[in-house]
Design a protein that fits this description.
- By secondary structure, this protein is mainly beta.
- The protein contains no helices and 11 strands.
- Strands 2, 4, 5, 6, 9, 10 and 11 form a 7-stranded mixed β-sheet that branches. A 4-stranded antiparallel β-sheet has the order 1-3-8-7, with no helix packed on it.
């Protein structure tokens, strides 16, 4: 039902910031939790952050905790991932997805993946 389109990635230098956006189509955006995952070359997709359907609860991977903020704007049907102090290890394709399961960090509990947006951080 829901289609997601990520944007906001780009080529930046270490220490820079980016705000990734995940625009959702459909009528029930506010009923889903949302998550951000990333996949670096040669690595499996890993959890980055998640937010509950009401936006009250958020969850972060240790690798981004303290410098990233996930948020959502239900009126705009959009979820965001603000990333500050970017590091070369943040280089990856970032995907957003709809939470359809129970866990917050498990890839298997998400569906309707977007096409991804590339984040490249140079040192």
């Amino acid at each position: 039902q829901v289609q997601l389109v990520e944007s906001g990635g780009g080529l930046v230098q270490a220490g820079d910031s980016l705000r990734l956006s995940c625009a959702a189509s459909g009528r029930t955006f506010s009923t889903y939790g949302m998550g951000w995952f990333r996949q670096a070359p040669g690595k499996e997709r890993e959890f980055v952050a998640a937010i509950s359907r009401n936006g009250i609860n958020t969850f972060y991977a240790d690798s981004v905790k303290g410098r990233s903020t996930i948020s959502r704007d239900s009126a705009k049907n959009t979820a965001y991932l603000q990333m500050n102090n970017l590091k070369p290890d943040d280089t990856a394709v970032y995907y957003c997805a709809v939470r359809v399961g129970v866990s917050w960090i498990g890839e298997r509990d998400y569906a309707y993946w977007g096409q991804g947006t590339q984040v490249t951080v140079s040192s």
